[in-house]
Design brief:
The chain is an alpha+beta fold and 764 residues long. It is built from 13 helices and 37 strands.
Length: 764
Amino acid sequence: MKPYFQNDYTIPDRTAPYPRIDTTPKTDWTAKFIWDASDGSEENVWMCFRKTVDLSAAPKALTAFISADSRYWLYINGETVVFEGSVKRGPTADDGYFDSVEIAPYLKKGKNIISALVWYWGKETSFSNTDSGKAGFLFEAGNIRSDSSWKVHRNTAYLKDSGVSQPNYRLPESNIYYDANREIGDWLSPDYDDAGWENAKENGTGGCAPWGKLYPRGIPLLKDYGLKDYENSCDYTGRTIKVRKAITLHIPYNAQCTPYLKIRAKAKKKIRILTENTWMGGVSDTYITKDGEQEFEALGWFNGERITYEIPAGVTILELKYRETGYNTAFSGLFTCNDARLNTLWQKSLRTLYVTMRDNYMDCPDRERAQWWGDVTNEMAMTMYALDADACLLYQKGAASMLGHIDRSTNVLQTVVPSNDSYHELPAQQLAGICGFWTYYMYTGDREFLRSVYDASINYLRLWTVGENGLVGHRTGSWDWLDWGLGADTAAIENAWYYYALSCVRHMAGVLGRDSSDLADLMRRIEQGYESLWTKKGYRSRGVPAPDDRANALAVISGLAGKDKYDTITSVLTGTFHSSPYMEFYVLEALCRMERFDAAKERMLKRYGAMIEEEYSTLWEHWIKAEGTSNHAWSGGPLVIMSKYFAGIRPVKAGYAEFVIKPQLSAPDTVNCIVPSVKGYINVTETRTEDAFVLDAAVPAGTTARIYIPYSDGRTVTFNGRIVYRNHRFADADGISFVGAENGFVVFSVKNTADAKLRFVAAG
């Protein structure tokens, strides 16, 4: 099976404690933003900084607070301390972030050289970064502070590439164009003589304009997996290219990476480096050789699993490698079963998710790298079944940024932040996002998060109007978009989303002790109005030729559709295929909520069949690969469906205080599912044959597990070797209580005061 994870993929022993993001800006800065003597407004500039520091003793601990517009690489005494620091600007439209880095391990008694390479992007338009309009670097670690005593020199080897089309306007990054003939020497060496460099120009202290207040980055520094060989590097090692050749190197899976080369060549030969995703408007690299042996790593990341080096004649290849980097989280969840297609789809969903995590959750890692909130909502749900608690910080950071961009005069929630473009409000994605706030609370139990988003959520919902007919008035936003795909039933989709969001905010109000009686009235009116959309073939608005799968799915998820309508809706969802991969998640969710699990599995395998069979490791934006990006995280909903419903593990009380294990698998099959809950790992193996069912579960302390055991007459159920159910009677046993019987299951409750291993066997 193709490996879709890092080579060091392992399940940690325990989940990390649930983290909370710090949203308090640092205000006591004494360091200065520094640059060279220019005004700092020039686009795509690379700047070198050096500072000599004499220490009477090596410190035991010393935290450096660092900010850069736009990126920095930090070195101390020639050793890499931070590989790509800083995150894209945008806690608000005017403010930025700073990093906290422990630097004591790199310092020594006596002379120390602190060096930084800083890359200023300077693009006015992008979907994922707010440009301040001025380059700057800030460093503060005790008495070591950036000021005019630091040496600065423009890295003249980095040039502007006019010969290759630049990345599309959505990206703040530029292509990298590096001419080794213009290098300034080994300036990272402690022995380098920087006497000829100018002294830095001070441009204001931390927190001043145009960089604004500086907030903690909130998320971990990047994970650096180090330089690795490509799968076929050895095919080219030691080879001299006779005729210009495009060499394609293979990575085991789609990854965020920076390409590296070590070669021997004559000067002025041009090497271009790109990936299979560059055509989507992503970045590429160009390297101009110097005489002799040389090495180079292009520091601006791109993504792909096929990296192409266009190498001219006369170049001898010594090494071709890549450095994988990514969000610093552990792959902590798992799902496997007897169906290899489902296993592949779950793994591809996870790989797709991971490649869209860095500064923020993004829609895609090549064309946009933007935080579209509909995508983020799906990604957050995937995170809950696949990654450790540190991944929660990325969602918290994204929500804080969204709140920081609210225009208080309108209370509009923007769908894409940060952005230097005009505002983006896609109402359907914002309503989905409000529902996602409640989902996040159910998985984490984070009341502070609910408190932070509640007012913004209810204020946004109050922007909408409900007419005399009981239906919400259409809200266009900045782009009238509900989903890709044909046949979207606007009124039915929009009203279901709005009703669902109202329901979620009412739940939030209950937790927070807030009055939401006006929302209850709105919900009753919409319930009556929505009933007017019901036809004998399903929910359908006037003028729409046939019931839409997305509208009918949302009617189920929102609670608007009663069980009496489930058979009709099931017919819609098994016969209509309008949804894009984004909304397919909700269609599958609806089938599972109606307990049509076989139909959900059949639809999933049908719709994702081409993506499963495709050798590529990630999932596409559209059902046809050529129509969009080849890595779009909104497509990964099946990961959630399999863990949540097929394995059946999901919280019923916030933060997994109580959760269910309700397996849905056909005989014969064995499912192993690991869920990294905030209480600890839930590790379940479920085996079903024609004659028996066995459930083994390791569950964390401080939880109550509600266990559903498939049951038929004549069977006996044992719990940890003791008979607990036979002939429709429950036998008392320590630590377990009988809840009842329903729809082919007998249900037990197990309260876990300590980590426990549970074994249920139903046979007979």
